[in-house]
Each structure stands twice: as C-alpha cells, then as structure tokens.
C-alpha cells in the first residue's frame, strides 16, 4: 500500500496590501523563506503584487542566490536577465510531466523560483511532488538498477523538431559544443547535414546536499518516448526512426524502458502531488533536488517567469 504523501507547500502572506517594493520585502523575509523551503521543500508567497516583468525578475533574482545559466534546454525560453527566463514555450494542451529541472545536466540548479504575472483561466498549475517519497514508494526492483548505474538520455537535434542545438547550447560553433560536451561527460555525434546526436549518463538518485536524504532526481519518465502523446510519438518514429526521436531515456546499458515502467513512475509521482492554482503576483520558491515539478495543460494566457539558482553538481 502506498504511503501517504509527504509533499507539502508552506505559505507566506505578504500582507493585506502589496508591499511598495517586492524585492525589498523579500530581502527582509529571505531567512524566513529559506527556512520554509528547508522545512517543507517549497513555499508560496502570496500578495507581493508583482505587476510586471521587471518587478518579477527583480524578485526572482532576490531569492535564487547565485544564478544558473541554462544549457541543454528542451524548449524555447525568453531570457530576462541572469538566471531568469520565461517558462518553457511548451504546447498549452500538452502536460509537462514531473521532473527535476536540468537533472540531465552535469551542473543543476539547487533552487528554483516561479513568479506568476498572468494566471491562466483554467489549469496550468505548477504542481509539486516530494522526490524522497517517490523514491520510497517506487518498487526496489525498479529503482535499484537506476540507483546503482544511473539513467541514459539520448537526444537528436535536427532543424525540423525540437530546439535547435544552437539554442540549446548557446552557440553556433560546433567546436564549442564539442568542448562543452567534453567538460560535461556528453558523447556527441554529428551528421553530415549538421544534425547532432548526444548521449549522457546521469545519476538517478541523488543525496540532498543539505539533509543527506536520497532523492529520486531525474527525468526518466518525462523524457521517455512513452510519455509523449501517442500521435506525436507515432509521427516522429515514422518520420525519423526510433533513433531519431528528439529525446528518449533508457537504462544505463541502453536497454529501453517499457510502457508499464514509465506509467508506474508517473503514477507514483501523482500519488505524491500537491497542487495550488496560480494567482496573479504569486511567488513560489522550490528546492529543485527535493521537489519535482510539472506543468499541467491550460487554457487562456499564462505568463510565469522562472529563476534558476544555487548551482550544484550531483
């Protein structure tokens, strides 16, 4: 029987009226915010009155600490300063399943923050799940090989599907990509037409640097072919072949995951998921190691800015 969820979201109210300067208010409450994140894994600050991208960006920079520059992204983002971006431009009718941000990279953000400028009319929740509880409740026969050997991510960058490698790596120089790959334990293969294939092996279970807890820290299910919409998977497979999918995940030795395994991982995430609908001006600060997050389908306009900070090498 699955244990009750341990996922929780602390709350902090900025007051009956928004502060005149949200970033200044956050400076005075930063210790309280960090303590809430340490105790609960995430905190929602409500009532800040963030009324534009400049105010939201300043608030995010105030709470994320040392900024992390995103590399190896999967979907386009708009940049709003060091460590601050728009949320990923991902189709509104398709979910972004539970994952830890940049958990396929050699250096990851230990902390994330989200600022809501425009809440959607329906859906669009950034949900959370405690990765300690997910690890605890997944079957040991599933987790132990990943704990021991890690997980494998493959990507195929081509001009027709997904994010171009130039955007993912922040350069149009193939030699710079090769150098980045060498520094970050990524195997690369270039096609004659300029397409890029990459393979990287990453840990699936990470010890939290602050608490010492083991956390299910990866994107094994999110970036797997079985999590794609069936019609999208079928089209991409027919068009580019199984090795031409824009991304896929495997056991460390390259053995494919079956659908039942991927579905089970997503089911256990769901059992430990908490949701809070966005309100305009919300700020949510999240421990990216302890908490996985998702983005649910939505209707209407939605604008969330994201801050990435506190670099950590698992």
UniProtKB/TrEMBL annotation:
UniProt-listed Pfam families: TauD (PF02668)
Cofactor: Fe(2+)
PANTHER family on file: GAMMA-BUTYROBETAINE HYDROXYLASE-RELATED, TAUD_TFDA-LIKE DOMAIN-CONTAINING PROTEIN
Occurrences of domain TauD/TfdA-like (ranges): 22-305
N-terminal signal peptide: none
This protein's name: TauD/TfdA family dioxygenase
One of the record's GO molecular function terms: dioxygenase activity
Highest classification ranks of the organism: Bacteria, Bacillati, Actinomycetota, Actinomycetes, Kitasatosporales
Keywords (A to Z) from UniProt: Antibiotic biosynthesis, Dioxygenase, Iron, Oxidoreductase
SUPFAM superfamilies found in the cross-reference section: Clavaminate synthase-like (SSF51197)
Organism: Streptomyces rectiviolaceus
InterPro entries: AlphaKG_dependent_hydroxylases, TauD-like_sf, TauD/TfdA-like
